[in-house]
Amino acid sequence: MTLTAPGSVLWLLAHETRLYWRNFRAGRAGRSARGLISLAVIGALLVTGGVFIALGLHGRQAPINPLSVSLAALFTAVIFTLMLSQTLSASSEALYERGDLDLLFSSPIGPAKVLFVRALGVAGGVVTLFLLAAIPLLLPTVIWGHPGWIGVFGVLGALALSSTAVGLLLAMGLFALIGPRRTRTVAQVMAALVGAAFFLISQARTILGEQTSRSLFADITRQAQEGRLKPPPIASLPLRAMLGEPLPLVALLAGAMVLFALSAAILGRRFSDAAAATQGKTDAKPQRGGLVSARAFAAGAFLATLRKELLLISRDSALLSQVLLRVLYLIPTALVLSRNAANGTAAALAGGAGVVAFLAGQVAGSLAWITLSAEEAPDLLAVSPAGIATVRRAKLVAALIPVGLFLALPIAVLAWFAPVAAVWTTLGAFLAAWSSGLINVWHQRPGKRSEFKRRGGASWMATLAEMVVSALLAGATGVAVAGFAQWALIPLFLAGAALLSLRRSDAQIARNLRTR
Amino acid sequence: MTEALIVRGLDKTFTKPAVMDLDLTVHAGELYALLGPNGAGKTTTLRMVAGLTKPDKGEISIFGVDARTDSAAAKALTAWAPDEAMIYDKLTPLEYLEFVAGLWNVEPKVAKARAEGLLSKLGLASEARRRCEGFSRGMKQKVALAGALVHDPKLLILDEPLTGLDAAAARLVKDMLQDRVRAGGAVILTTHILEVAERMADRIGIIAGGRLLAEGTLDALRTQTRKEGAGEGKGDSTLEDVFLQLTATPEEAAA
């Protein structure tokens, strides 16, 4: 029996790779010339950056001292958590995605082998993403004077394997703890929190207040200079491995492989049982009361559509975790706003107000894409006598309501300290959100809800236009908050002109949808 | 007799002609079965009647309303249920029916009572407040059928309505359709289960290659095939015999 015999790990891996490749080819980036050009441009930019890094580092050696060891360990931890947020999400989704899982588990292939290959796929996906950014940035340095730094790629591989193992353990732990119904939601939320954790830490200066964080940083630097910063010897492993020392690199890789193999072997049977248990399970607890409901039905197409869209948004765990992630990114901004509003620091306050407006536009754009383009039963709407304008309006309002809810807190805080700034921010955020919604009405591109993260291949022009218009309106908000309301008219006018040029009539929208 | 649906000279071409010069009439109080081999143009015809596909040519009138010029009024009278249920996995059946009733602007109190009645009748009362994502195909079909009936349409357009239903559910659905017909509604459906058409349909249309080959009651179709000679001496031929004779390719007929 050869290594690639049917039923072997390699055979199964080849099958998964083929499916992954065909999915990629079928996707927009793998198919369209525009996608390939975009990838080439990003690649060229990264390589250029990599060449500059290589030039800057040529002839210099990285010191191994407590400060560099601590920084490398911190960097490793950041990458690990970023990877973990993805592997946790992917591992929990793997439990629910039917795909060919039923076929594989009904075959004589052992569940541990199936899980091993699935998990390798998760790890491979994550490491590919990081390598795509790391290789062009780092390869010039590796080639030109620092061959040992190729160890960075090995460290990334080790991190991908161990984060997949931990992601699987967490997903299965959640499953055992809270059952199939809530695992997906909780895992998605946890993934968002883990992913944002280091962003929040990186914003410590903002969150803690400049004085506090400055003294914290000064304290760490002082400790390093005075030789009091003494990380444990094991903390030097990542740096030494990244610099290409064979023993630490092998130790990291071996440790990650053992952890990975162990988790796959231990969880194999449990995974197949859990995957079987998720079949037909919903995220929600069935409501009691059977058919009898005290609540009246919504009247008319507008209210019925609005209610339906809000229910669908509130029940989409992946969508909620993404919105939560954006809310988490808003926390430092909200703190900047409140602190600077209290202190009367105009520049930072204006910047914060701009960020709120920009985020409002971005979140509204994503939600509007979900409500307008990711309609699950378009034929039902098409055969109904409800006016398309009514349905669209309801969908747009449904996309804007969650934006209003998540902006309520920062704006309320702002209103307490600086009511005028709060008015400008509210206006700017509303305009940005409404504009993004309108762009999604005019440039609908049907897709699946599950493709929310990458907007189901939403029109690239709509995505770009949303960003530009949101940025212009954010600029207008910032300028107005800074006290130059008359100057805010310039970006406002530009945003209006952009919207006018993007506008499409009902007939044009219908034609555009028909040709897809 | 009131004419529920009149189709005249309907044409539709995609990459090749799908429906050609099709004429058919369905009366109120009648169940009409449209039969044909795969790719015959059945679903395209029904989609054009439902307003989902724009015909290249032809007229469609639903209870006297021109569906091509006043589509909203025509849609208000009809319901469309395809073989793949048009439902939302994250909604419960009751929420789904609320949404559908809203689209057809049914008065909320009436809609609620009707939705509860339909779910009870279809054996979904205990599942009324569970999300559809865990439902079997048959249950989803029943929810979709309830959706098609919640606004009390005068013309029901069904594409393979019995797909995925168990025997009891299929019987229930057949009974409900016949109740509607008896109450003066009209039903046009496609099915591959010829026995269903044979037992339920008042009239049958057989379509192949986008053209209506024959139309009438089962007896009329038998007579027609006898006249054409292929079914000579088969006075008690089944619908299957008639269907196969009418849709046979020249090679099959020669064999």
Describe the structure.
The complex is a heterodimer of chains A (516) and B (255). Chain A is built from 20 helices and no strands. In chain A, α13 packs antiparallel against α14 (346-373). Chain A folds into 2 domains: 9-278, no CATH class; 309-514, no CATH class. Helices cover 78% and strands 0% of the residues of chain A. With 516 residues, chain A is mainly α. The longest helix of chain A is centred in the middle third of the chain and has 52 residues, at 151-202. Chain B contains 10 helices and 10 strands. The longest helix of chain B has 16 residues, at 167-182. Chain B is of the alpha/beta class and 255 residues long. In chain B, α3 packs across α4 (108-121) and α3 packs parallel to α5. The chains are: A mainly alpha (516), B alpha/beta (255). The interface between A and B is large, with 40 and 46 residues.
